[in-house]
Amino acid sequence: MRDASRLPSAIRTLPSRSATEPVVGLDLGGTKIAAALVAADGTVLTRRTRPTPAADGAEAVLDALAAAATEVASEAASGAEPRAVGVAAAGVIDPVSGTVTGATDTIRGWPGTPLAPALAARLGTPVACDNDVRATAGPELAALPDGSSLLYLAVGTGIGGAVAVDGRMAHGGRGVAGHLGHLPSPEADGLPCTCGAVGHLEAVAAGPGITALYERLSGRSAGRLQTVARRAEQGDAAAAQAITVGARAAGRMLGGLANALGPDRVVVGGGVTGLGHRWFAPLTEAFTAELLTPIGELRPHPPRFGADAAVRGAALLTATAPMHHPA
Ligand SMILES: [Zn+2]
C-alpha cells in the first residue's frame, strides 16, 4: 500500500469498496481492449475484448474503455455497476496523477490524456491506472512474501519492465520507472532506439531488433521474428546468432540490474519468450555470468500467470495504486 500522506489530497482516499466485491480490470493495447470482472481472490469471472479505436483518438478510446467496463460489470450476477476499475495501459503512465505522461503515436493524441480521472468521470466510479507491464507484475509481487523485491522484464515488440524493491512497486518520477528497454547496451551500440536515443537495449533485443540484426547479418529480408525463428530451426546460422545476441543483451542488462537491486525473484515474459530454449538459455547464461556471489543462485523464471495476467494485474491496481474519484 502506498504511503497515503505523500499523495495529492484529491486521491488521498483508500478504496471504499468492500474487499470481497469483484472489480473490473481493463488492459488497453494498441489494437484491442481486454476487459474482465475479477473476484477478490483474482479469479476472472467474465472476460470480453473489443477493438481499440486508436485512429479515432483519445476521447474515442476513453469511451471504448468505459463501454468495456460497463459491459463486463453488467454481466456480474448482481448486475451492478462496477464498484472500482483498474486500467493497465502501454506507455509511460503516472498512477499518482492518473495521466499518460509519454506514449508512442499508436493511439492518436494519447500523450497527456488524463486517463484515470477522465474514465472515472465517464463511469461515476473510482479508477486506478498504471503502465501495463507494472500492472502485470503486480500479482507476481503479491505472490511473494511481504517485503520481497522483484525484477520483471517483458520482451516483445518493445521492451518494458517493472521493479519492486522491499515490497513496493517503484513508479519513479513521472511514472517512468521500469522502462528497462532504454538502458544502454553494448550489443546495441550505434543502433537507433524507438525513443530517439542511440544504443538502447530495445534496439537489439526486442523482436524487431532481433529481426533487424538477422537482416544485417545475413543480407536477407525476414520482416518478422517468426521468420527468423523458423530459419534458425532450419539451420540458418545468422538467424541463430541474431536470437542469441538479443537474448544475451537482455540477460546481461538484467544481471547487472539484479546486482543493483537485489531481487528475490526475476521474471521474464513477453512475446519473444515464444522463441523458447534457443532464446531463454543464452539469456539465462548471460544473466548468471553477471551476478554477485550473494545472489549467484538467482535465475529468471517465466511468469506465473497466463493469458489473464494483465487484466488480473489491472484489477489488483484498485487495491494497490492511487484511486481517482469522479469529480
Ligand atoms: Zn530507448
What's the topology here?
Layout: E1 23-28, E2 32-38, E3 44-51, H1 58-74, E4 85-89, E5 92-94, E6 99-102, H2 115-123, E7 127-131, H3 132-142, E8 150-155, E9 159-165, E10 168-169, H4 202-205, H5 207-218, H6 225-233, H7 237-261, E11 265-269, H8 277-290, E12 300-301, H9 309-320
Parallel strand pairs: 1-4, 4-7, 8-11, 11-12
Antiparallel strand pairs: 1-2, 2-3, 5-6, 8-9, 9-10
Helix pairs in contact: 1-2, 3-9, 5-7, 6-7, 7-8
This protein binds zinc ion.
Would you kindly provide a brief summary of this structure?
This protein is α/β, with parallel strands linked by helices. The chain is built from nine helices and twelve strands. The chain is globular.
Can you walk me through this structure?
- There is one protein chain.
- This protein folds into two domains: 4-138 and 308-320, Nucleotidyltransferase, domain 5 (2-Layer Sandwich), CATH 3.30.420.40; 147-301, Nucleotidyltransferase, domain 5 (2-Layer Sandwich).
- It is built from nine helices and twelve strands.
- It has helices at residues 58-74, 115-123, 132-142, 202-205, 207-218, 225-233, 237-261, 277-290, 309-320; strands at residues 23-28, 32-38, 44-51, 85-89, 92-94, 99-102, 127-131, 150-155, 159-165, 168-169, 265-269, 300-301.
- The strands form three sheets. Strands 3-2-1-4-7 form a five-stranded mixed sheet. Strands 10-9-8-11-12 form a five-stranded mixed sheet, sandwiched between helices.
- The protein is globular and about 55 Å long.
- Mean pLDDT is 91; it is low at 1-17.
- The protein binds zinc ion.
